[in-house]
Amino acid sequence: MAIFLHNTVIKYLFKSPIKHFPRFSSLFTPDYLSLLKPKIPLYGMVNVHIKGYNYPTLENFQRLIHQHAVQLDIDIENSFATPSKSLKIQRLKDVNTGLQIDYQLEVYERNVVVSDVSSIRLPMFIRLLESTLPEGVTLKVQPWDSTIENKRYIPDKELIEAKTELENMRKK
Question: What positions does the domain Small ribosomal subunit protein uS10 occupy (predicted)?
Answer without folding.
Answer: 47-142
